[in-house]
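The instructor's notes for this session suggest beginning with a concrete chain rather than abstract definitions. Hand out the sequence below and ask the class to guess, before any prediction is shown, which regions might be ordered.
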Amino acid sequence: MAVLHLRHLTHHSLLSTSKLHHHFRFSPLKSPRFSCSASASSTMAKQVLVPIANGTEPMEAVITIDVIRRSGADVTVASVEKELRVDACHGVKIVADALVADCKNTVFDLIALPGGMPGASNFKDCGALESLVKKQAADGRLYAAVCASPAVALGSWGLLKGLKATCYPSFMEQLQSCATAVESRVQQDGKVVTSRGPGSTMEFAVTLVEQLYGKEKADEVSGPLVMRPNHGDEYTITELNPLEWKCNNVPQVLVPIADGSEEMEAVMIIDILRRAKANVVVASVGDNLEILASRKVKLVADMLLDEAAKLTYDLVVLPGGLGGAQAFAKSDKLVNLLKKQAESNKPYGAICASPALVLEPHGLLKGKKATAYPAMCDKLSDQSHIDNRVVVDGNLITSRGPGTSMEFALGIVEKFFGRPKALELAKGLLVVRQ
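After discussion, reveal the predicted structure:
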């Protein structure tokens, strides 16, 4: 299974990237500190704590961390368990920067809890975290939670009394006993921000950026994410030259990763496809299983590409991120694997920078309609469909960026399992209304 190592940024490391705040934001990670492309505030970076636990929902954790780091904040990821590594949902393992117990003397501008079960219950049972968040509330500083955590953690600690809050639908009854429960995708009341689930986490994280740095910074961060204009509406894909995607019982899917891969895109693809019961193999394009993703998230692949390339796949799908896409394009083994997939008329796909930097230069978009990250679309020879969020052309699927990743993954689910299955999953994720 994939392992995620999450490490926080220092104020100095954030300032080192300030020149990259315009247009394309996926860094090639030429040095360990070169990881966050949003410009930092001229004042000291805001201090943010994101706790994680066994059973944490990895999409909610990684999206929150990634988006907030784009604002220039210094995010510390802290484990509530006895060790740094936690077993998150869907076979993803996360390694924190510190233990929550080691953060008790730190003053945070924001504490944001991801959801997932039993992750939220493990938060509730952690005395050190409870003390930290209660002090945060008592001092009038910002605190937040998504999915199960508003009801299971914040509510049980008495931190939502008299406040409007929201949470994952199946926990609304529990929330009603400790807060004024509302069905907003993101709800703010005073210094508390709550949200519903994976499909609302990006909105949640952007709201937190606004609370930390103001609306101008939130707009600066949210624009390049390519977020959905109408959150909750039924997702759509643009399909040309329809082709049935076949597999034997369970789809076998390869997701390559490399230094500089966009962690949100990688984790959303892996998480959603595993929810759909696809067999997902995460393979490192390089000499080591560990890769350093675009915003200081370390991922450990299931195997090296050399080993993964010996297997056969129903789909090979590339996450984006500038550095990751550049590494993919230089990998003869991966390019040959993609060419073999295309020649066999078997599905392959890419999102963000990868359609433009990997598929296009190697002739894998010839005669195909595709889209890519907006700042990269001028590299596509056929730009007739670049404004579509997800484009399927026969055995090819492409998409635009972090904010389209869930639709992209759901489009893959739809092609293998049918639209009813994809919509069922989308409703559970709160990508579309239940």
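Then share the key points. The chain has two domains: 47-225, 238-429. Residues 4-42 have pLDDT under 50 and may be disordered.
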